[in-house]
Structures are given as C-alpha cells and as structure tokens.
Design brief:
The chain is α+β, with helices and mostly antiparallel strands. The chain has helices at residues 2-26, 29-35, 41-60, 75-84, 86-103, 108-128, 136-157, 161-219, 272-290, 296-308, 387-390, 401-410, 417-432, 453-461; strands spanning 63-65, 68-70, 234-241, 248-255, 260-268, 317-325, 330-336, 342-344, 350-352, 372-375, 381-385, 441-448. It contains 14 helices and 12 strands. It comes from Syntrophus gentianae.
Length: 463
C-alpha cells in the first residue's frame, strides 16, 4: 500500500511539471507555428527534442521499484505525435526509449518499446484527424490506451513473468490516472489556446469589416468645405463621425440646375457592413432621382419603391430631403421619418421645423410622400441632424436630448455653418464625457445669405 501511495505522489509531481512546461510552450511562437500548420523540419526537430527531454524527465522523476519505473515517460512522445505526426512522435519516443533502456532493469526493453509505441499512437491519431488537434476527451482516451499497451508489452516481453505481473498490478492504475490527467491538462491548454486564437481571428475579422464599412461610409460623402466657394448665396457645412460600431448615416448636396441646390441627410437602420452598403445604394438612388429635376416627394416615392424590391433584410432609412432656390430662399422639402430639423432664424429664434412627415423609405411599396415648402430669409439657417446627436448618452445613460441641442445652437446665432457644427459637436462630446459613442453623429447646416447682386439685376432686367 505504501508503494502505491509513493507511486501516486511521484507521478502527480511529474505530471504537474510537464503541465507547467506545456503551458509555457503554448505561449511561445514555436507553439503558434504548429497551431497555424507552419510545420517545418526545423521546428519539428525542435519539438522532437523538447518532448524527448520531457520523456526523459518523466522517467527521472518517476518511482523506482523492483528495477522498474512508475513514470510519465510516454506522455512526451504521445504529445509530440499528436502535435506533428508519427515522425515527431517516434523521434521523441526514441530519445525517451534510449534513456530508459540504458537505465537497465528486467523491464528495460518492454518499457523502451512502449515509449516508441506511445509516440506512434499519437502520430497515427494525428493522421486520422488529418492534422486537426484532438479534443481533451480524445486525448485522455489516447493516454489510457497507451498505458494499457504499455502494461501489455511488459507482460509480453519482461521476464521473469511473476515480477512483470507484480509491477503491472502495482503500477498500471496509477500510471493510467497520472498520464491521463497529464494528457488532459496539456491538451486542454492547447485547446483553450486554439479557441483564443479563433476568437482573436474572429475579432480581427469583425474589426476589418467595421473598418471597411467606415471607409465605404466616409468615401460616399463630400468632405471638401466650403463646397462651392464661388457661390456666396449660401454657406454650407456638414460632418459625419461614425461610431465604433458603424451605422449607415449619410449626407449629400449638389446642384440640380444653376440656381437650385439639393441637400439631404439620412440614417439607415442597422449597423455594420449591411447598413453601410444599404446606405451607399440609398444615397446613389437619391442623387440619381434628384438629378432628373423631379420634386422631392416624387424622388422619395421612386427611391422607396426601388429599395423595397428584394429588401429581404427589411432595412429602411429615414431621410430629410430638400431643394433650395438660391435666388429666393424658397425650400421645397419632404421628411421621410427623419428627426425634425432646427430652424435658426437671423433674429435668434429657434424652433423645430414642423412638417406633415411620412414613413421612412424602403418600408412599404407605393408609400406616399408629402412635398412642403418654407422660406429662408437672409441670415436664416436650417440644421439637419441624425439621432446620434440627440440620443448621444453620457456614462449615466442619459440622452443629450433635443433641448440641449437647441441650447447649444442658441449660443452660436449669427455664426457661420462650420462654427455651428463645431459648437454642437463640442457640446455632444463634452456631455458624453468619454462614454462610448453608440451611433453615428451626422449634422448638416445650410445658412442662406441671399442672391448675388448680379443675379438680382439680371432678374430685374427680365421683368
């Protein structure tokens, strides 16, 4: 009974050391090469040497009884075989086998042969799994099978048979348990590392997709300001700050003819690549439809029907769409479910633009949209924004709110459009105070300055 207890203690100590070595190896570049299937002769030879030395350690740290050793020697070659195939397993097994053979004893031949067989078994499992690393349960079964083969070889080869039988009776169960535990711990380290690498790869893939989405998003919007330096009738500025989890905000502006400027801002439902792609399609369709000089309600009606076709992901977009006549300041607009813009009058009065409103685009085919008008006097401005502004949150999850937006704009009356944007952005970021940005922040400000003198004279000459 004392012998069994001493065997168990010795084997546990040996297993613990081998498990620690396996853990530190798993954090090395050498280990990573095997996980990535970058197996060269150089690192295969290094693996043979390392696990061959572990095999020798398994013998040296074992418990000697009747000229035999209770040990974890087979663990090193078996792991080498599981990692890199039969050649690695047999190579590490030969190192451990030669060392065991020269220690002598009546079981030296059977034990040396069993060590080589352990490496071969690990290698055959590697081939059977086609290079994929076996799971913890499978590795434990492999360890048990190897120890049963070890016991069988001892009974078959070692003489006298009575001594071999006694050794098997005392050693086999503790060796099965110790090697199975050691194998399970060592392999669990590898399995967890594989899962960690897979998680990191997935994380990097997602990060790459989000970067691609941001690039798509930012490449689709104008970024040069002032956009029309030779047109003093208006002052226009816009900004888009994508969130970490990119969404589908967009804005655009362009002349539909010499005197009429189209401007729009939208927000696509959802996040990531799908939202950015849907945004790109939506923005392209809107610009194409408006270039045909259709009224804003007709534009939204046409684009809505185009987006409804094949919209299997049920995505949609809110859009504010307007066209300002730079000669008169008259704006025709249509609001498809978007936040109400802010009207900043020259007098300093602030108000949200009331409108009949319509459904977002891409929800229902043939959905009607309403055309409305307003008049901008000289010095008046219209500010369109996405819900990333009013719904920006601080660390207490409280919203920035429409009231704070009005308060922010009230402090910059009479300023140029870019100053309006800077003030709002500064206030939003200050309010968030480092809290993560959960949605895109998009703002477009258009300030009407009135027609050029030459345009007035030309207009007067036509009457």
């Amino acid at each position: 009974m004392n012998e069994v207890r001493e065997v168990v203690v010795a084997l546990i100590n040996s297993t613990a050391v081998i498990s620690v070595v396996a853990y530190f190896l798993s954090r090395s570049r050498f280990y990573d090469d095997f996980l990535q299937k970058r197996i060269t002769w150089k690192n295969r030879l290094l693996l043979i040497l390392i696990f061959g030395l572990l095999s020798i350690y398994g013998t040296a740290s074992g418990f000697k009884f009747m000229g035999a050793f209770a040990n974890t020697r087979d663990l090193g070659p078996a792991l080498a075989g599981l990692f890199a195939g039969p050649l690695a397993g047999i190579g590490a097994g030969l190192i451990g086998a030669v060392h065991r053979y020269f220690l002598g004893g009546f079981s030296c031949v059977s034990c040396a042969l069993a060590t080589i067989v352990a490496g071969l078994v690990g290698g055959l499992v590697f081939l059977w799994k086609k290079g994929e690393f076996i799971g913890v349960t499978g590795a434990v079964i492999v360890a048990v099978v190897i120890q049963i083969l070890h016991a069988g070889l001892t009974l078959l080869i070692a003489r006298p048979f009575e001594d071999a039988l006694k050794i098997v009776e005392i050693f086999t169960l503790p060796m099965i348990l110790a090697n199975a535990i050691g194998m399970g711990i060592s392999v669990s380290v590898v399995v967890n590392l594989v899962k960690q690498r897979a998680w990191e790869q997935e994380k990097n893939t997602i990060a790459g997709e989000l970067n691609a989405a941001r690039e798509i998003q930012m490449s689709m919007v104008p970024k040069m300001f002032p956009p029309f330096p030779d047109r003093p009738e208006f002052d226009l500025a816009a900004v888009l700050e994508p969130a970490k989890e990119v969404g589908g905000d967009f804005y655009d502006f362009f002349f539909v003819d010499h005197d009429r400027l189209a401007f729009l801002l939208g927000d696509v439902s959802g996040k990531g690549i799908p939202a950015s792609l849907f945004m790109a399609v939506t923005k392209t369709l809107l610009k194409s439809a408006m270039s045909e000089k259709a009224s804003v309600d007709q534009v939204l009606f046409k684009v809505n029907n185009a987006l409804c076709e094949g919209n299997e992901m049920s995505m949609f977009a809110t859009v504010f769409c307007g066209i300002v006549d730079t000669r008169t300041g008259i704006v025709e607009f249509s609001n498809a479910g978007h936040n109400p813009p802010v009207m900043l009058r020259r007098s300093g009065n602030l108000e949200f633009l009331s409108s009949m409103g319509s459904l977002p685009i891409a929800i229902f085919e043939d959905s009607p949209y309403t055309r409305e008008t307003l008049t901008l006097e000289k010095g008046d401005a219209i500010i369109i924004y996405s819900d990333g502004v009013t719904e920006a949150m601080n660390k207490e999850q409280a919203l920035f709110s429409e009231a704070r937006l009005l308060s922010s704009l009230r402090e910059v009356k009479g300023k140029q459009s870019d100053e309006l944007l800077k003030k709002v952005l500064a206030d939003v970021h200050g309010y968030a105070a480092g809290a993560p940005q959960s949605d895109d922040i998009t703002i477009l400000a258009l300030q009407y300055r009135g027609p050029q003198d030459a345009s007035i004279e030309a207009a007067a000459g036509t009457h």
